[in-house]
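Sample 1 of the test manifest.
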Amino acid sequence: MSKIMEVSHLKKSFGSLEAVKKIDFYVEEGSLFAFLGPNGAGKSTTIDMVSTQLKPDGGRVVINGYELGQEDEHIRASIGIVFQDSLLDPLLTVEENLRTRGSFYGLSRNDLDAAITSASRTANVTEFLKRPYGKLSGGQRRRADIARALIHTPKILFLDEPTTGLDPQTRKSVWAMILKLQREQGMTVFLTTHYMEEAAQADYITIIDHGEVLAHGTPLELKTRYTSDVLKIKPRHDEELAALLEEQAITYERDAAGIYSIALNQTVDALPLLDLFRNNIENVEIINGTLDDVFIRLTGTEVRN
Amino acid sequence: MLAIAQRNLRIFFRDRAAVLFSLLAVFIILGLYVIFLADNIANGLSGIPGVKFLINSWILAGILAVTSVTSTTGAFGIMVEDRSRKILKDFTTSPIRRAKLTGGYILSACAVGIIMSIATLLLGEGYLLLFDGELLPWASLLEVLGLIVLAVLASSSIIFFITTFMRSSNAFSAASTVIGTLIGFLTGIYVPVGSLPDGVQWVIKLFPISHAGVLIRSVMLERPMEISFAGAPTEAMEQFQQNMGVVYYFGDYTVQSWLSIAILIGTTLLFFGLSMLNLSRKSK
């Protein structure tokens, strides 16, 4: 696979605040790339820079083979963006909005018509094309935003928290649409999100904080590297288990409900332990590390705050 | 550029409140005029035939000058709104040239100005007809249309310059309120300019848009003055022209039409240039 986007040594300061200190990453063509970080980590600043809105202080960005700062017009033609807030005109219908925005890309009249039809079909907005954008529900608006971003069939689609503020059902359907775009149409998707269950479906994740990359890898790699599984045991005889654990010099924690937690390096490490306690187990479970754990471990903050 | 202009026009005319508010100053002037200004002025001119037609034409000419300013202000409101609501982000991340984008805003503001002025002119002509007046002859109508275009160009250029400083919708609506309030005074249409103190007269005469007023008055009052001052001494008409601002004097010099036209064109170019300078200073 080739790299459709490559960012190296990206930097940006606002006065004395170093919003982005040094960020490096690349995105493979056709992949679903998740860009995570707590609020104020430098996500938006990075997106503003790579989408040609903000001039970087240093570093190099290449998107679809075009160099940022020199071939911005080409970059703008290669990217589609779904912004966090709705940026279509509330007084115009969805179709008028798509037509106005579509006219920026130098399409002929026929091509523009075809582009509107295909984008509205993909984003599933055909049924409310003639309604004013301002009168749509949150989910419909989001779909219209996506249709707008798809109007010129971009090489790479940026989505800045596309499902934030939607009700669970709409969130699910918007998310399904994004997955479909990537899996079926082979579109490269670059996404920021607050929902770890969404990030977990990405091909690759980069986590940043304080303007620097903290970790990157596939969801599985990150989980293996930054979390451990936990064995939880509810014993029949409390003291017996405690004594046994002390004797074996195994570190553990015991909560108020009398449940013992033992950190594991690998899931299979649970087997010998279970064997050891075999006769003293009332209840047992093994908890896998989650992306949430990865995130909290790396950034020291909860994802949603 | 056309697509942007078309979008702006749609947004402007779909927002009924915006359309109405852009004409607020006009309604206020009209209200004041109908309630007492008309009688006041007419009393000062008692005994003159066709005085109603004369005065109505006079105020209509002034209103047209004001419309060119207030309607373009309303249209440029869209530009400020796009900036403050970040809609501009969607445009600047698209492969459209900044110059075309800006051109689209200016084009739509001029279009709004011309459309609203023509609507005002048509309504005004209807009003004249209703109160023992006559319609403008075709040749004069064309002249007025040409002057409307000039007035709109000069006004939109000034307003565009002001807009380049505005970041928030609140600041802009405050500015447009101030503009709407002052414009009636600055163009000298509330009261006959001759009845004002010298200093104020100078302010009015130096304000470029009032030259649009003078030019439009001189065309629109041609016929009514013929009727009203038939058989009267020339001095009477000259005095009327000076008093009502149909002709301006810079000291002893009578301002000719070409100079007023030159002032309008010069204003257009000057403020357009200044706006460009201000815009290029801001973009990094």
